[in-house]
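Entry:
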Amino acid sequence: MKKSFYFLIFSICILASSCTMMVKGIAKLVVKNYNDYTSTHISDIQIVDLNGKHQTFGSLYNGKTVYLYVWKDKKLSEQQEKSYLLLKEHFAKYPDVVFTKLCIGSDSTSNTNRLVNNTSSADFRNILNISDPAPFIIGKDGAILSYKGPKPEDKIIVDYVLYQAMNGEDGTKSAKRFIRGINGNSQFKSDKLIEWYTNHFGKAPEGKLSMSLSSTN
């Protein structure tokens, strides 16, 4: 059964410390499975690219951190597509980050990469188990750093997790650090996070942060 949780983290529990702890606890449960398959590498899976050519994932994205949206039959909604493109804009200044989509179904009409159904993709297919589109973050060495990771609409958190993935950090570790770094007033507790936010978004955080977090099961 799919369960989805949407939080404006700490914004609904500003004055109640026990409630803040509860929200943080739930958030940590959401992100705990991001690192389920960090030992799984997908560099050798075969895909059909946009030009109809068979390629390995590794040959296309060698040395890149890849935000990979995987879908089978149900494509991104219009709102999801807008969030996806906005996240892509945030990372346009990082040349080693790539955004792409991968169809694992039988749709041959979409303008996206398609997964070849052969032995090279068997292990990857076995762990997918998705009904709705799900994002994965793939490291520069082809390892899955975030399994069904943060979605584009997961404000700020998805940016932080993807940013840390450029250094090879798995999604669970970076997401939990981020959650710990927010205080009960929905503000950063450390200068390091403030510096990251300022450099990434081009402006300093002002007041309460607007954040959200979801999970795909």
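The longest helix spans residues 17-31.
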